Structure prediction request, 120 residues.
Amino acid sequence: MLAGMILRFLFAVAGIWLAAHFVHGISYSSLASLLAAAFILGVVNAVVRPVLILLTLPLTVLTLGLFLLVINAGMLGLTAMFLKGFHVAGFWPALVGSLVISMTAFIGSMLTKEPKAARR
Prediction:
C-alpha cells in the first residue's frame, strides 16, 4: 500500500514535470518546488476536489462530465496559489496541464495495477 502511494506520487511528479516542459505557462523553480507541487496537488485533489464535484454536480451532469476538466484546472491553479515556486499562467495552461498530469497518472495507474488475485 505504501509502495503504491509512493508510485502514484512519483507519477504525479512526472506529470507536473511533463506539463511544465510542454505547456507554455506552467513552470517550477526547483526540484523541491516540483516535489512540493505534486504533494500539494495530491492533498488538494483529496480534500477540495470532492467537495467541488459535489457542489457542481448539476453543471457536471449538464455538460456530460466536461466540467470536471474545469475543476481539474482549478485544482492545478489552486496548487500554484499555495506554492511560491510553482506557477500557472492562467486558465488555458492550467486546463492543458491538468490533462497532461491526468494522462500521466492514468498511465501510471495502468502500469502499476495489481492483478486481481494479488488484491485479495
